[in-house]
Specification:
TIM Barrel, 6 strands, 4-stranded parallel β-sheet, 2 domains, two-stranded antiparallel ribbon, alpha/beta, Alpha-Beta Plaits, about 40% helix
Amino acid sequence: MIIKSTEKNTNKATIVVEIEKELMNKGAEIAYKKQRKNIRLPGFRPGKAPRKMIEKMYGEFVFFEDAIEELFPEIYDFAIDDERLFPVYDALQDSIPVMLHMGDPRYPYSHPARLRRVLDLFPRLNVIAAHFGGYRLFHTAWELLRDTDCIFDTSSALMFMERGEAEHYINAYGAERMAYGTDSPLWDPVTEMKRFMQLKLTDEQFDQILHKTAERVLKL
């Protein structure tokens, strides 16, 4: 993936990203093989139509949207403080908020230390750090991000915390820095809401996390 250009205009930012032709073709081939059993062309048995014939009939980009879905893990297999993202972060300063998947000790790409580096380099970047700032790295996130201005959300976190841990971090960060999240469809939204409402918080804290923080960040 190559970031070709970024352009900022008031509260909007346009980012042009280029995916290598070979990689895009790889994704399109995967998408074709998954879909060909459902594609029917005159003169061919179901599932036997060649990719080039399908592209000739429906357009050469017919598989590209699904190709992006197939390539997503490979395209985004880089760290959040990768310097290729710096033009994007710079263009988004004082602009729309950026939400980042955070934590997960299985992978190094979104460790809280990487976000700290990004925030130090781009202090006006409006970041929402998912999963209390670090999925299964909650204390590490607290140590590294507590004195920043980023917002944290509650998604993919509550079920992995010890009793009282969520309340501890909410009180430590301040409810004004917390926003409600579910990580749906990974987790059931109804179950996540019940889990959240069982926390020992004040009515003011519930209101803040459920809607007031989002309203402030999104300027609603």
